[in-house]
Amino acid sequence: MPTDVRRVIKRFQQAEQVFEDWRSIHEDCYAYCLPQRNTFRNENSQQGEKRVDRMFDSIGQSSLMRFASRIHSELMPPFQKWVELRAGPLVPEDMRNDINAQLEDINQKLFAVLQSSNFDVACPEMLLDLGIGSGVMMVEKGPDHDNLVKFTTVPLANAMLEESPDGQVVGVYRKWKAIEIRFIELKWPDAVIPAALLKKAADEETAKTDLIEATYMDTKTQAWTYCVIYRESSAKANGEVLVDRPMSGNPWLTPRWMKAPGEVYGRGPAMIALPDIKTQNKIVEFVLKNAALNIAGVYTGVDDGVLNPNTVAIVPGAVIPVRSNGGTRGPSLLPLRNPGEIQFAEVEMEKLTMRIQQVLLDTRLPPEAGPVRSATEIVERIRQLAGDQGSPFGRLMREFVTPMVKRVLMIMQESGLIKPVKVNGLTVTAQIISPLAQQQNINEVQAVVQGMQTLFAISPEIAMLSAKIEELGPWILEKVGTPAKFIRTKTEREGLQKMAGAIAVQQAQAQQKPAGVQQDGGGSPVPLAKAA
Questions:
Q1: Phi/psi of residue 450, each to 5°?
Q2: DSSP code of 323?
Q3: Rounded to an integer, what is the distance from CA 125 to the centroid of its chain?
Q4: Domain that holds residue 496
Q5: CB neighbours of residue 197 within 10 Å
């Protein structure tokens, strides 16, 4: 079914209107926290332009970069296996280990594909945008088997989201500003370029044009379509389709850190900390001005016919003409007192810095040169940090990790690397096994072990009656991330138990003396009647 251009352009215009409603707050967040990726102020920004002219302090930038690095290293660490497919809760217990063993091969191939792709390059860039509120990343099929999957992070200034009433993103639109016509076929090999653009490119080799890239879901059929549209003018409600592709699923990943009801875009920690970041920036600006006054000074000069304030140049200070500098008009030149109190500013900046770092998860351990901290305090701070990070990961798991795994698996299936597998959370689920998730699993294991130890301390009989001791070992191994091939199945455990029981019976029978037989002096069995 061909694309209805008018309908797509109308959906694009509605998404663009919502985008403009958010422009002001997004521009502020990027200006103070992520100026290097800020193209909100000028969509036609040039390479190498200055983007920190409003900044006097870098706490917003440094904390946001640490926020992205921390999530990347603790949730999706590079060169490590951080997610794996596991049997879901609907799989019968006696089949779980067998299915997990079959999924091990897919897990290995999945991470081989991820590590050979540019995921570890694109992901930190997306996490920086996520710190503002929303991340946008496209997952495409790569050009060859060596680069099977390609990840593209799109700055929030260039992406427009469309959301359904149930909170699902059903459209992602992108404006291509001033793209050279000669690069259209390189970017989209299947593009059908209109005659007007071909003539324009023939007249001028570097001729440019604007395009609309639309990826949207049909709300009736729930089928996804990708298309590229050319319009001669933004005022026109119609255009020509250059690319029209049916998609097997949504190629876009659009995680939101936290979302208010009825809003399309997310609100991230940088947006929450923005008032403190602005205040900090303004205080540093005042402190720098105060320092400049203390260093250079401002002077008052008496216009007494000897000193002419209009011709005196005090660099880098300034001269203010006054009538008098004291008794009998005072000295001809007098430094102006500076009433600024810098100590108060330093105290206030320290408080603001702590609040900003706490919101952006930039909480470091105590410095080595500082006062000695107890081991209990450090452990509690690490545990608190894990708790602070764990709360928003539910949405990140639902809107980024699981869709990303599904998309990569779909590309692998289309390439013939693996057999079809459906990750639905019930029969097959994607589980995070990163350091942060492992720490949570270890805490859960420790709680269970402590409970078992308490029961055995009270009474071994009560412990055996209350707890399934035989199920504890496989559960602990699974929690700490032991591969399925090293965990015995339930059938194997039952077989070992029967074998151990049979061996115990044989040993007991061997230790029993035969009835009516006693040992003689030489150790040979002698019938009792003969002995008598």
A1: -65, -40
A2: S
A3: 9
A4: 456-514
A5: 19
DSSP 337: P
Distance, in Å, from the CA atom of 12 to the CA atom of 174, rounded to the nearest integer, reads 9
Residue 294: inside a domain, yes or no? no
- Give the dihedral sign, CA 43/46/48/54: negative
Say if residue 199's pLDDT is above 70. yes
Nearest to 210 by CA among 194, 237, 233, 238: 233
Q: In the listed set 266, 292, 326, which residue is the last one of a domain according to the structure?
A: 266
State how far Cα 407 lies from the chain centre. 17
Indicate whether 104 belongs to any domain.
yes
Is the Cβ–Cβ distance between 97 and 86 less than 8 Å?
no
So what's the pLDDT on residue 529?
46
Q: Contact 299/75 with Cβ under 8 angstroms?
A: no
| Within-domain flag for 151 | yes
What does the DSSP 8-state code read for residue 365?
A: P
Q: How many residues does this entry show for the chain?
A: 532
User: Which among 254, 265, 305 has a CA at the least distance from the CA of 138?
Assistant: 254
Q: If we measure between CA atoms, which residue out of 392, 132, 389, 158 comes closest to residue 274?
A: 132
* Each residue's pLDDT tens digit, 488-521: 777 777 788 788 878 878 888 887 755 555 555 5
The number of domains in the chain is 2
How far is 406 from 408, CA to CA, in rounded Å?
6
Measured distance CA(368)–CA(459) in Å, rounded: 46
**Of 102 and 333, more confident:** 102
**pLDDT cut 70: percent of the chain above it:** 80
Spatial distance between the Cα atoms of 31 and 170, rounded to a whole number of angstroms: 29
User: Quick check: is 333 in a domain?
Assistant: no
pLDDT at 426: 84
400 and 76 Cβ atoms separated by less than 8 Å: no
- Rounded CA gap, 117 and 32, in Å? 32
Amino acid, res. 21? D
Q: Which of 266, 290, 322 finishes a domain?
A: 266
Q: Report residue 28's pLDDT band, with 50, 70 and 90 as the boundaries.
A: very high
pLDDT digits 0-9 by tens, 384-441: 555 555 556 778 888 999 999 999 999 999 988 998 888 888 889 888 877 666 666 7
pTM of the model: 0.76
